[in-house]
Amino acid sequence: xxxxxxxxxxxxxxxxxxxxxxxxxxxxxxxxxxxxxxxxxxxxxxxxxxxxxxxxxxxxxxxxxxxxxxxxxxxxxxxxxxxxxxxxxxxxxxxxxxxxxxxxxxxxxxxxxxxxxxxxxxxxxxxxxxxxxxxxxxxxxxxxxxxxxxxxxxxxx
Amino acid sequence: xxxxxxxxxxxxxxxxxxxxxxxxxxxxxxxxxxxxxxxxxxxxxxxxxxxxxxxxxxxxxxxxxxxxxxxxxxxxxxxxxxxxxxxxxxxxxxxxxxxxxxxxxxxxxxxxxxxxxxxxxxxxxxxxxxxxxxxxxxxxxxxxxxxxxxxxxxxxxxxxxxxxxxxxxxxxxxxxxxxxxxxxxxxxxxxxxxxxxxxxxxxxxxxxxxxxxxxxxxxxxxxxxxxxxxxxxxxxxxxxxxxxxxxxxxxxxxxxxxxxxxxxxxxxxxxxxxxxxxxxxxxxxxxxxxxxxxxxxxxxxxxxxxxxxxxxxxxxxxxxxxxxxxxxxxxxxxxxxxxxxxxxxxxxxxxxxxxxxxxxxxxxxxxxxxxxxxxxxxxxxxxxxxxxxxxxxxxxxxxxxxxxxxxxxxxxxxxxxxxxxxxxxxxxxxx
Amino acid sequence: xxxxxxxxxxxxxxxxxxxxxxxxxxxxxxxxxxxxxxxxxxxxxxxxxxxxxxxxxxxxxxxxxxxxxxxxxxxxxxxxxxxxxxxxxxxxxxxxxxxxxxxxxxxxxxxxxxxxxxxxxxxxxxxxxxxxxxxxxxxxxxxxxxxxxxxxxxxxxxxxxxxxxxxxxxxxxxxxxxxxxxxxxxx
Amino acid sequence: xxxxxxxxxxxxxxxxxxxxxxxxxxxxxxxxxxxxxxxxxxxxxxxxxxxxxxxxxxxxxxxxxxxxxxxxxxxxxxxxxxxxxxxxxxxxxxxxxxxxxxxxxxxxxxxxxxxxxxxxxxxxxxxxxxxxxxxxxxxxxxxxxxxxxxxxxxxxxxxxxxxxxxxxxxxxxxxxxxxxxxxxxxxxxxxxxxxxxxxxxxxxxxxxxxxxxxxxxxxxxxxxxxxxxxxxxxxxxxxxxxxxxxxxxxxxxxxxxxxxxxxxxxxxxxxxxxxxxxxxxxxxxxxxxxxxxxxxxxxxxxxxxxxxxxxxxxxxxxxxxxxxxxxxxxxxxxxxxxxxxxxxxxxxxxxxxxxxxxxxxxxxxxxxxxxxxxxxxxxxxxx
Lengths: 157, 431, 187, 383
What we know:
The complex is a heterotetramer. Chain B is an all-alpha fold. Chain B is about 70% helix and about 0% strand.
């Protein structure tokens, strides 16, 4: 990873926690780094794409790619920080599997992925308002209006 | 009173079926008998299928309604009759209403020519086998209209599959039937017959079941028919039209209650009908097994006792299970019921030993026993095989059964006319 | 043996004939008046079945059986097959009788004239000497009907229809191949 | 779900174009359909019976497990994971417990590890048996279902004797086990092993060489190893496509490195290979169980874990080889008693994405076979 550090400078920051490697990458470097990780470092399997919400931070979201290389038998996480409303380039052209995974992140956090072929809700119904895995979304909260209209339940609960 | 007895006796001594004799009274009696017998057979088949399948699948099957679930089919029938009759909103009501009746009519009408014995048939038509194939093919109409009238995707696909399947397997079936009919013409006058009774008589005259005729041609024809008939009745492994996992229930998805039960009735009576064709054409119809190997009065006597022995044996099974019933007071009614059922079976067995009855019934018994073997096979298939895919089904029908059937037909004709052929070849060589 | 069992009692011919004929005519009218093509097809099936019954009354069971197998059981199923796959709703809105009614009337008139001509010829035959069917096709007993047809078609002495019969089947084969070629661009 | 207008490109509102006009027919399969294994809805675009494309509509069983996790303590969340892949609840529990243990930097004692392996492998067999029964039922063979359920029952009995529950077992605790193996546990497991071996032969006898089964499964739903990797497909599906990869070998967890077993692979990546791979996997699981039972050490079953768990701040990703594929847990701790974020990497969800690729150009009946062969559990897809 050292050579990446040289190339990209402060935009990339390799770290290790509990024996697991991860890279903190600047948002602007994301497409480049992901592409190079697959092509040059053989991380050919994207295990998961997910996000974490930190409402108190200025850049409120962590987006995390978990990658695995069959050749090196090694896992790595790529992590970037983005602000609410900011979008991330889609990794769908790099790993097809990101299609649904990114849709789920969009569904749950409202993070937009640029260049995603069909970015829409996946687990929640299409007309739903709100993004449940954000910290400001209460555990009992739901889209009462949607429930009233689509399920015909008056109270909305 | 005396006239009446004489009338009945004169009929019993007749060598013609009521239809051929033009006797409307006896024809009506036979129609009623066949109708009732068929309904009972379907009910019995329902129970047997569930029980046999259950035992193949390491479970017990119906056990609650009556001893060993004997009354389960009746309970089911009652339930079906009392269920709400739902006609979907967008359905074509008239066609939706007619469809099950077409299927049932087609399935029951074929039994007009089924020969349970030399005189035990409603009528003996000159075109018997043709009539059976023709009328049974009419049930496709009912299925297609049922699927269309439901105004829903799954039934429509089911109906289309079903009609394509039945139309294509009829061809292979027809070829196999023709090869059996060719065999009937091997007699002094060189004329064959299409009459169901005539076909069995031909097997009797030629002293061989057509299954073993021109070995292995007879067996191949029989196998083609046996495969095609399963496809024709939409049963596993060819049950695509009602493939539960793909099309929920196929063409009768939208049917419920009484109408659905009509489809059920039709399916089972169609199974019995095609089995009857197979038995008549290849398994010697009402003829008892080994007619030429075990001849003589002793063998005749032994074989004529078998029906009675069978029923006694069934009765004995019932009594054995009565003894095994739990001794709890709650099971008292069930125990009594099973014992009663066994007693009835045993009584029937005893009656079957009476010489007059024995002679009269043995034909029907052998015919039914052979059909029952096919019914068991149907259940066995269902327990064993996965389902064919539609293109594979068509492939089997058109690319395997049809060419085999054609080749078989030509071969049968050649073997049947080998004397003439050899003579002609010799003649040609001399020239 | 009771004599009443051996003799053939007369079938209620005229009663059945008029009944079956009425069914046929009603069926025929329904075929051309129904707007729903599936209903028309069902009416046509009724007509064809009634026709089979008429053949039976003419002591021609083989033709009746073939009529049921081929027309009611085979061809009509394919008819229904095709009808169900096209949009019925749109067809229902189309005009019932299209512009070919003139040709239709002419054709129907010609067919009717032919029937009348044949009818008068045959009735004259009963008393006179003129015949249009020289072979006397009704000479076979009912029980021998099928064998009779076979003899007529295939045997060397009685009939010379063998060639025509085979040609007809070849024609059908050509039609099938044509249909396949037209329907499938790539086989 | 109800707003069908948004379902482009498979628009349900356009009238059916049939046969004579165009060749397309849109069929909606599910969510109430006998062969979609729960509440999966598949919208199929057909040309006759040939599949031109399909779209999965999921989420009918979404319960917000990840949201619930953020509002429960680590211990309280443990039973919830059982409700995701409810036919392999033990595996879910193992993955979660190990992930939290890693976060806490504790390790379960050896005896607990052995019992965990035994139960997890038993659960793998149960899951495969359930898969086999329903898969065969989808293809039309009704009998294997009853055979597999009969034998799965024996596994559930062992679970019930061990922890009182049959399906959602909650068998493991963070740091080890709550219950010591009951008296006769080892005997029961050994009896089960010798009982089920001939039964697996029995299933194979019914299917492996059955002509119809071969025709229905060979060459159906083919997916190459490369496609599998690109789509993130894992588990038996990946292995049947020829990629020899099993987390139990590649990145060993629990104490799998102590056991001797093989990873079965297929060649063609079709439904038949997946069937064969899972059948061999059942046998290999039995092998592991036999080794584990023979070698259970004595000792404690619970590591020293604080009563109130407050893992240090940090993130962890830990995954195990569940019966369906890679089941991963990504846990973010903020140092409190409740996880800040738990992300479950569900194998069924990711594998289901491959359905479209596998079904294109196949027939409707094959869609059923492929859904069956992917071995999805909607509880895990939707979470």
